[in-house]
Write a structure and sequence with these properties.
Layout lengths: L27 H12 L5 H4 L5 H6 L4 E4 L3 E2 L9 E2 L9 H12 L3 E6 L10 H14 L4 E5 L7 H9 L4 E3 L9 H4 L5 H14 L5 E7 L5 H13 L4 E6 L16 H14 L3 E4 L9 H8 L1
Parallel strand pairs: 1-4, 2-3, 4-5, 5-6, 6-7, 7-8, 8-9
Amino acid sequence: MELVLVTIGESPKATRPHWLRAPAPVGDNYRELKSLIDSMGLHTVCESAACPNVGDCWNRRIATFMILGNVCTRRCGFCAVQKGAPLEVDYDEPRRVAEASAAMGLRYAVVTSVNRDDRKDGGAELFALTIQAIRERIPGCQVEVLIPDFQGSREALEIVMAARPDVLNHNTETVPRLYRQVRLGARYERSLELLAAAKDIAPESPTKSGLMLGLGETAQEVLAVMRDLRAHRVDILTLGQYLRPSPRHLPIVRYISPAEFDELRHAGRQMGFRHVEAGPLVRSSFHASDAVAQFR
C-alpha cells in the first residue's frame, strides 16, 4: 500500500474512477424524508455537507441530524457546511429531532452539529437535551453523537457524557501534517485528548473516529494516526475518500482504491479496533448501527 506524498496546494488532475458512484437522491422515501425534515425546520449533515450517500441513506429512511443551526464558526478547507455568524440556539430543536426520529421509525439515531466556538460549552448542552428528548420519545432508541472538539473543554464533554450517548464519535479527519490546511482552528492532539477523556469518563461506552483520505497523506501517516487512535482507546474507525464539494474547497490529490481500503481495514483490525468501516463512500455515520451491532 503506497500513497503518494503531494503538497496540498498542488492540483493534480485526478479523474474520478468508474467504481466511485453513489445512488442518485431520488425515490419515494427520499422525497418523504426531505419533506419531513423541511417541514420541521431541521438540518441534516447529509444535505448541508453534500454527502454522496444521501440518496442511499434517505431511501433506507436514515439521516444524520445536525443541531445548533447550519452555520459553522470554523472554515475547514474540506467542508461544504455554510460558514459565518452562527444562528441563535433553538431550544425546541431537540424535541423536533425526537419527533422526526419517531416519524422515521428510527431505532438508532445519529446527531452531529456545526462548530459553535461562540458558546462557552460549544453546544454541549443541546447535545445532551437532544439525547434526552430522543430517549423520552422513543424508549430503547440508541443515540450516537458526532461532536466537535469543544475547544478542549472537559466540562463540555462531561455534559454530553452525562446524557449517556451509546456512541461518542469525534473525527480526527486527517493526518497531523495537513491540519493547518484541512482543519483550521483544530488541533490533532486536542482531538486525541477528547477521545481519551470520553473513555476516562465512561470506560464502557464505545468511542469512534474517522479520517478522509486523498488529501495528500502518506500510508505511513495514516497508519500512524490509526495507531494513535488505538493508543487513546478508540473502538470504532471509519475511513473514506475525500470528495471535493466545490472548486472553492481543497483539491483531491488522489483517489484511494477499494483494494487499499481493504488493506487499511485489515490493518485496523490487527491493531485492535473492534470495528473498521473503510471504503470510498464511507462517512462518519455510514452504516453506523451495523458497526455498533458488530461491536456489541
